[in-house]
Amino acid sequence: MRCPACGTQVTPFKNPVPTVDIIIETEGGIVLIERKNPPFGWALPGGFVDYGESFEDAARREAAEETGLSVTLTLQFHTYSAPDRDARQHTASTVYVATASGHPVAADDAQRAEVFHEGNLPPLVFDHERILRDYFAFKQNGHRPFL
Amino acid sequence: MRCPACGTQVTPFKNPVPTVDIIIETEGGIVLIERKNPPFGWALPGGFVDYGESFEDAARREAAEETGLSVTLTLQFHTYSAPDRDARQHTASTVYVATASGHPVAADDAQRAEVFHEGNLPPLVFDHERILRDYFAFKQNGHRPFL
Question: Which ipTM score applies to this complex?
Answer without folding.
Answer: 0.93
